[in-house]
Amino acid sequence: MIEQFLAFFGALMDQTGLAHFWWGNAVMIAVGGVMIYLAVAKGYEPLLLVGIGFSCIIANVPGSDLIQPGGLFHYAYQGVQLLVVPPLIFFGVGAMTDFSPMIANPKLVILGAAAHLGIFVALIGAKLLGFTLNEAGAIGIIGGADGPMAIFMTIKLAPHLLPQISVAAYSYMALMPLIQPPVMKLLTTEDERRIRMKQSRQVTRLEKIAFPIVIGIIVNLFFPPVAPLITMLMLGNLFREVLVVNRLAKTAANELMNVIIIVLTVAIGSTMQADRFLTVDTIEIVGLGLVAFVFGTGSGVVGAKIMNLFLKEKINPLLGSAGIASVPIAARVSHNVALEYDKENYLIYHAMGPNLAGVFGTAISGAIMLALLGVK
Amino acid sequence: MTMPDSLYGAVMLSLIDFFASLVMITGIGVVLALFPLLNRIGKVDEDALRKSQH
Predict the structure, then answer these.
(1) Cβ of A18 under 8 Å from any chain B Cβ?
(2) Among A99, A108, A121, A207, the residue to mutate for chain B (most B Cβ within 10 A)
(3) Which residue of B has its CA nearest to A107?
(4) Residue A18: other Cβ atoms inside 10 A
(5) Which chain B residue lies closest to A134 (C-alpha atoms)?
(6) Nearest CA of chain B to the CA of A51: how many Å?
(7) Is A356 exposed, middle or buried (0-12, 13-18, 19+ CB in 10 A)?
(8) Tens digit of pLDDT for each residue in A245-274?
(9) Which ranges does the record mark as transmembrane (chain B) (predicted)?
(10) Domain ranges of chain A
(11) What is the ipTM of this complex?
């Protein structure tokens, strides 16, 4: 009787998640909890970290049907894996973004490429650590500080690294206000940080409407591997700038974007299962991501200083670090660091130019990388 | 031809990609520098656009 009871009880236990729970799950549940804490108590990227943290917790409760085929989190991940979600994020971002700062000051666009040295430092570092070239390329793109692009490239180059790379990319983007300023200050003098920028010219509506169309053509012509993302960015922006379809622009920028953020965050969090995440590779990728951000910030600042050697009207080198993308966080960091040294030096509009160019810089780097690696 | 999966390949990929990106984005900058010329074509009536919501 007792033996039968124990056998039934054992069988019952086997069907619960408890029997398959190991210490790795506990660690990852704690990681998810920390993410929610950072979002709620510290205000670090709550739109992203709440969803990622919660789905990370659920993904580490063994037996959760949500992450199995048939579960909603599983289908959310399918949306990411099939590259449906990243272009839709770009669509929403396009509808939210005013590209005037980039159009008004084209010379600052170069900083969008200069700030991407970090991609290649991380790529070479990853290769030295024994990753394959495709994996190294995906890890390097973390340095582009562009979440959807990092996901896009990882799915193309090394889909098995998606959880680590997406978590590293989004975490460092949230931590940019802590990572960038020391590097920016190290590479600039106080006088340089006080340089004031001349007011930019007004960009007309005709230019704003032409911009997404012209860029859409250029990107599809020269960079087809990443055209799905940038084309959708431009479509969203065209909706915004033509002024005659405001309801579509608002939907793309608000309701659709919110839905996509929910899908994206649960998709990323649900891939953070302990057996896949608690590896040496993860530690290496997180370390390389930090290296990429530090070198990207530094190369942007140095790039701006090199430009100053040739420019009659000097630019504030703090704008260089904004070229790392991560709109608008990096631009805000440039602005805030400049304000520390001159309370009336408002760099935000100027910093948005290289910041937006950084999105194109990452996309172009990604497209060239895919072409050189022979990946379509 | 694709890059060899080696440190040499990683360095070559990085060098080519970095400088090609710089050239390409400079090209976009040049195109943007030409944008003010568009204003010679004419002017868009923003008020009329705002009124014609669909």
Answers:
(1) no
(2) A207
(3) B29
(4) 11
(5) B5
(6) 34
(7) buried
(8) 999 999 999 999 999 999 999 999 998 999
(9) 6-35
(10) 69-372
(11) 0.92
